[in-house]
From TrEMBL, chains A, B:
GO terms for biological process: nucleotide metabolic process; purine nucleoside triphosphate catabolic process. Pyrophosphatase that catalyzes the hydrolysis of nucleoside triphosphates to their monophosphate derivatives, with a high preference for the non-canonical purine nucleotides XTP (xanthosine triphosphate), dITP (deoxyinosine triphosphate) and ITP. Seems to function as a house-cleaning enzyme that removes non-canonical purine nucleotides from the nucleotide pool, thus preventing their incorporation into DNA/RNA and avoiding chromosomal lesions. Substrate binds at S9, R10, N11, A12, K13, K14, S75, F156, G157, Y158, D159, K179, H184, R185. This is dITP/XTP pyrophosphatase. HAMAP family: Non_canon_purine_NTPase. CDD domains: HAM1. It comes from Nocardia aurantia. Keywords: Hydrolase, Magnesium, Metal-binding, Nucleotide metabolism, Nucleotide-binding. The lineage of its organism: Bacteria, Bacillati, Actinomycetota, Actinomycetes, Mycobacteriales. It is an enzyme of class 3 (hydrolase). One of its GO terms (cellular component) is cytosol. Mg(2+) binds at D74.
């Protein structure tokens, strides 16, 4: 019988990303469920100053409310010319929450006069697992730069504007498998695999 | 006969601020003129990474184009929870340039979930003077915090949201004289007074 693991998200792409990473690693015996598949509980606002703080708070809330093992992430884009912002405010950069198109448009407009040599950026992800009284947080980073116009329609968030180092295409132009292999969240989730494997066999 | 000094700005409030500070310091013999009172010249975009860099570039451009002594400032709001941004991007934070209301609204929305103890901020101003082959840049700071709603209709920029340390009212609720005495630009301009006095008697 498989063990249910709550991913504290309603984003189907995030759930599937974790499912793919578990499958590739050959981890069996875990059933990944999202927030829409558990009874609703009050989710605290993300007020932390760091990705790790927010990820851990979300995973604690989910585990406490459901009794399930809970994985939560907080991720964002850290832009050099913005001193590392949008950072923990990535999702609400344009004011509302999760307005990808508006966030991308605002970021581009803010960087209009920023020359190419100062457009460095990195995606950062903190992934936390809270289960059976244990807490783990892993950080993954994906270095690159902010393009001058969006490209591609895969991915989500700032993917259309983010060109990873070593390539010429945006994160939104990568296949899901290419993105998993390189991305910040992929790196952080793979770093969580040992802890997830323990759950599967535990 | 008075010597003309170009302030590289079209903002009448900035011109008057310098005029008041010169008058209070008893500096006579300087006629402050703005960009609307000199033949138009091409103004380079502000692409510097620091206030000082931008102020100096603007003052150099103005002096080179007009042959006048030129004062230029670059100022902005540095918010702790935004790692010091909007910073040099203060004027175009919401995408367009100089849209005060939109900038204030965006800043408030970005900080919605940021608790009171992390709402520290400071106004920073770099004021440069380029004249007779000499270059001077002075920095002034004004510490405070970002309020939860705008107040007052004086000032400009982020003044309605900025509550200076030691008081309970916003910068937009201060009289011009109160603001001159405390503000970042007031401090930077007063630090330039010795250099301006030399011009007046030179």
């Amino acid at each position: 019988m498989s063990r249910r693991v709550l991913v504290a998200s309603r984003n189907a792409k995030k759930l599937n990303e974790l499912r793919r990473i578990l499958a590739e690693a050959g981890v069996e015996g875990l059933e990944i469920v999202g927030l829409d598949e558990v009874p609703p509980y009050e989710e605290a606002p993300e007020t932390g100053a760091t990705f790790a703080e927010n990820a851990l708070a979300k995973a604690r809330d989910g585990a406490a409310a459901t009794g399930l093992a809970c994985v939560a992430d907080d991720s964002g884009l850290s832009v050099d010319a913005l001193n590392g912002m949008p950072g923990v405010l990535s999702a609400r950069w344009s004011g509302g929450h999760g307005a990808d198109a508006a966030n991308n448009e605002l970021l581009l407009a803010q960087l209009t006069d920023v020359p190419d040599e100062r457009r460095g950026a990195r995606f950062v992800s903190a992934c936390a697992l809270v289960a059976d009284g244990r807490e783990v947080v892993m950080i993954g980073e994906w270095p690159g730069r902010v393009a001058r116009e969006p490209a591609g329609d895969g991915g989500f968030g700032y993917d259309p504007l983010f060109v990873p180092d070593g390539g010429a295409v945006s994160a939104a132009q990568l296949t899901p498998a290419e993105k998993d292999a390189a991305s910040h969240r992929g790196r952080a989730l793979r770093a969580l695999l040992p802890a997830l494997e323990e759950l599967a066999v535990g």
